[in-house]
């Protein structure tokens, strides 16, 4: 982290995907309290988070709007993806506005964070749906990074 600080680099850890144990393997970053523990462990502005809506949002006990507000000054990258959770704890990817997570509320919280900090947070619309007639079309990149100021990173 000191090297990141000296280089002006902001680290942003991605949550576990999926945010629960598979094959008995332990997980590290699955909940808001996990993310808080990482932030608390190294109190540096270089120690930040990727708010992956799809990963954190796969758990019903993660409130994405609450997390965006709680970590407003430490979210350095956002993956916008929505999911629909099933009763057995599994989930599947959904359209951005048709899943179980409040994507509008999330964006509102992130825009508020940007306004407060004056810093644009890169946001990637994860796993965008590519329509058959768009394949190969010039400029179609579902993974394109888009920031509030329409800077393109991908
Ligand atoms: Mn992600």
TrEMBL record:
Keywords: Iron, Lyase, Manganese
SUPFAM superfamilies: Xylose isomerase-like
Cofactor: Mn(2+); Fe(2+)
Enzyme type, top EC level: lyase
Transmembrane segments: none
Domain of life: Bacteria
Gene Ontology molecular function: any one: mannonate dehydratase activity
Catalytic reactions on record: D-mannonate = 2-dehydro-3-deoxy-D-gluconate + H2O
Documented EC number(s): 4.2.1.8
InterPro entries: Man_deHydtase (IPR004628), Xyl_isomerase-like_sf (IPR036237)
Pathway the protein contributes to: Carbohydrate metabolism; pentose and glucuronate interconversion
Chain's role: Catalyzes the dehydration of D-mannonate.
PANTHER family according to UniProt: MANNONATE DEHYDRATASE
Family to which the UniProt record says this protein belongs: Belongs to the mannonate dehydratase family.
Designated name of the protein: Mannonate dehydratase
Organism in which the protein naturally occurs: Psychrosphaera algicola
């Amino acid at each position: 982290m000191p090297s990141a600080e000296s280089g002006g680099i902001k680290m942003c850890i991605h949550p576990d995907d999926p945010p629960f144990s598979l094959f008995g393997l332990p997980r590290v970053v699955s909940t808001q309290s996990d993310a808080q523990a990482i932030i608390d462990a190294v109190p540096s502005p270089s120690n930040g988070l990727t708010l992956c809506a799809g990963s954190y949002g796969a758990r019903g006990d993660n409130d994405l709007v609450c997390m965006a507000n709680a970590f407003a000054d430490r979210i350095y990258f956002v993956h916008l993806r929505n999911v629909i959770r099933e009763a057995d704890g599994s989930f599947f990817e959904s359209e951005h506005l048709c899943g179980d997570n409040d994507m509008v509320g999330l964006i509102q919280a992130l825009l508020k964070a940007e306004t407060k900090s004056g810093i644009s947070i890169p946001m990637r619309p994860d796993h965008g749906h590519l329509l058959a007639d768009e394949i190969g079309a010039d400029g179609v990149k579902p993974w394109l990074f888009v920031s509030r100021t329409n800077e393109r990173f991908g």
